[in-house]
Write a structure and sequence with these properties.
alpha+beta, Beta-lactamase, 5-stranded antiparallel beta sheet, 41% helix, globular
């Protein structure tokens, strides 16, 4: 029998050997090229986002608005040039008092603050969260805007508003009480509405916006301009109430019959949603809300304390005007 030779001993012609090497090289290059193309396709897809479906997003929640890029247009991304203007205005008035200002652009989030974390007595500013708590109950179906509430003797309060004159036993709808409380800052209406709420109903709003609840027993019962702005931001972005009831809440704050100091600083045709607050014991005067500038709406809260009422009454509209003029100038 013929002896079988090991592979290593088989003699392969040189020409055939070269063909095999070339074939191996071609196969290797084909596989390498294919792998590179697959890698580039995957990398391009990741960088452009084409490989990520919107349904798979876990860490972001895109809004319907287009992200701000280098094509900023009329958006304002910083307000630092406005700060010395406002500070000069404040310096001319507050010889002994304190003034807090917080401004934030609703489009870009750009902001400006002066004493914006200082605590001020909120006074009637606290009627806004009462309204929000009532509307949340309506939204849940726990009460109706047309439900009647009977005024009690304990509700009657003559310090602000005229509803107390109707006397105990008067029945009013929830929506009418809300209008009296917000549009006229009526204390009797607030007392009647707050009776419909539990401590948890009120506290849930402050927990939601992330600020201490001034209604809690033992609290300092102060709020900063920056913190208070969060209530209006919650309504503007419809984060706590549904769009329907956020809209209703803001409508009630736009046609108020109480003083609107912020509104005095802007053109009459510009809508302003706001809440006014005054506390005589500490000469505290505040006005906070949303200025609906056509191109750049913004949140604004101005609070003063230990300052003569007449001075505060002049200063807040001046600061509001300085801000509006700056926004208007930089929105063209």
């Amino acid at each position: 029998m013929e002896e079988i030779k090991e592979v290593s001993e088989i003699n392969i012609p040189k020409t055939e050997y070269k063909k095999i090497k070339v074939l191996h090289l071609v196969i290797f290059l084909l596989f390498f090229s294919l792998a590179c193309n697959v890698f580039l396709i995957l990398k391009t897809g990741i960088l452009t986002g084409s490989s990520i479906s919107e349904n798979s997003l876990r860490l972001v929640n895109p809004s319907e608005k287009q992200p701000i890029d280098s094509n900023i247009g009329t958006s304002i991304i910083q307000y630092q040039a406005l700060k010395p203007i406002i500070q000069e205005e404040i310096d001319s008035y507050n010889a002994n008092g304190d003034v807090g200002v917080y401004l934030q652009d609703a489009n870009t989030g750009a902001w400006l603050g002066i004493n914006f974390t200082s605590g001020f007595t909120p006074a009637s500013l606290l009627k806004l969260p009462v309204m929000m708590a009532i509307l949340k109950k309506v939204e849940r179906g726990e009460m109706n805007l047309n439900d009647k509430i009977e005024l009690t003797k304990q509700d009657l309060n003559s310090q602000w508003g005229t509803l107390y004159q109707k006397g105990a036993g008067t029945k009013m709808s929830v929506i009418d009480l809300l209008e009296q409380m917000i549009s006229f800052s009526d204390n009797t209406a607030k007392n009647a509405l707050i009776r419909q709420l539990s401590a948890t109903d009120i506290d849930s709003i402050f927990v939601h916006v992330g600020i201490p609840d001034p209604y809690l027993i033992g609290s300092e019962q102060v709020v900063s301009p920056r913190d208070y702005n969060r209530l209006f931001k919650s309504l503007y972005y419809s984060a706590y109430l549904s769009p329907k009831y956020s809209e209703l809440a803001l409508e009630l704050t736009t046609d108020g019959n109480e003083e609107s100091l912020i509104k005095e600083g802007v053109p009459v045709e510009v809508t302003v949603a706001h809440k006014f607050g005054i506390y005589d014991a500490s000469n505290t005067l505040s006005d906070c809300g949303i200025v609906y500038h056509e191109k750049n709406p913004y949140f604004l809260c101005i609070m003063t304390t230990d300052l003569d009422y007449s001075k505060s009454r002049e200063l807040i509209p001046k600061i509001s005007k300085d801000i509006y003029d700056f926004v208007n100038k930089n929105s063209k």
